[in-house]
Amino acid sequence: MVKRNSGVIGPKQEITSAIAGAKGCHESFDQYNAEKGGNWPSVIIPGTNTSTSFYGGVPTRTYYDYTNADTTQAFDCKQVQTQFSGTGRLYIGIKVTNSTTYYNDISIGGIQILSSDQSTINQSWFFTSSLGGTGSTWQTYTSQITGSSSYGFPVTPATASGYTYSNISTSTGTGRFSWATSTGSYNTGTAGGISSSAWTSTPMTLGTGQISQVGSNYYAYRETSGSTQYSGTVMRSPSRTWSGSEWIRIAFLIVSPSSPVTNYADSLFVGTY
Questions:
Q1: What are phi and psi for residue 6, nearest 5 degrees?
Q2: How many C-beta neighbours within 10 Å does residue 1 have?
Q3: From the CB of residue 54, how many other CB atoms can be counted at a distance below 10 Å?
Q4: Alpha-carbon gap, residue 76 to 109, rounded angstroms
Q5: Per-residue pLDDT tens digits for 159-196
Q6: Would you call 68 exposed, middle or buried from its count of C-beta atoms within 10 A (0-12, 13-18, 19+)?
Q7: Cα separation, 238 vs 249, whole angstroms
Q8: pLDDT-derived band of residue 99, with 50, 70 and 90 as boundaries?
Q9: What is the CA radius of gyration of the chain?
Q10: Per-residue pLDDT at 135
């Protein structure tokens, strides 16, 4: 609600309607003065409620690969702004959408948490080694979560927060995340991770094919060979304090052949709780 005299129509506030009470239209200069004097409502920074349900709108493509090996294509980098505030964790979920299940070996090279204006790196994790790389230890749920063909991750972040987790390692399984430098499956996965030193003090560049691979570096992925279609699983970050308007920026790559194709819009999910 506008403060002070803004509820009263004055000489600079033109009447626009007399229906259900008079309303006014503020001139821009009057609005500026009111805002400068603390009498204009604050702008609410937009964001996504990532704690109610997992958000799947980060990826914007599936990269098509026709080789018989993991691709060396550069990682995509996308982001979402979260409304979540307080103490909690970041949850990353992968859902199996491709009918040929091993085509869902999605690679995640690193994650940055940026300030609301995207100028400051508040936290970062780069999954570059068999011990997890930089940052504190991430953990994984170790069982497949039954899902369906309907859009969305099978559970909510609240439900995921109640699971029992283990530290991520190089051990693989259909219900867990692992560290790896290859997937061993054709037409999917990446041949390496990304550099941590290149992005220590710089926000990762947004866009498709923006973050170059480093072949000897590890990444996080879910081994989906032998998994159940539409099932999901999650990994979680260490607990941290969230400001309520931060950006979650992720370097990842979703790779499959053009047929059958992995549904990028229903494969990689972000939650907080």
A1: -70, -10
A2: 5
A3: 25
A4: 10
A5: 999 999 999 999 999 999 999 999 989 899 999 999 99
A6: exposed
A7: 16
A8: very high
A9: 22
A10: 67
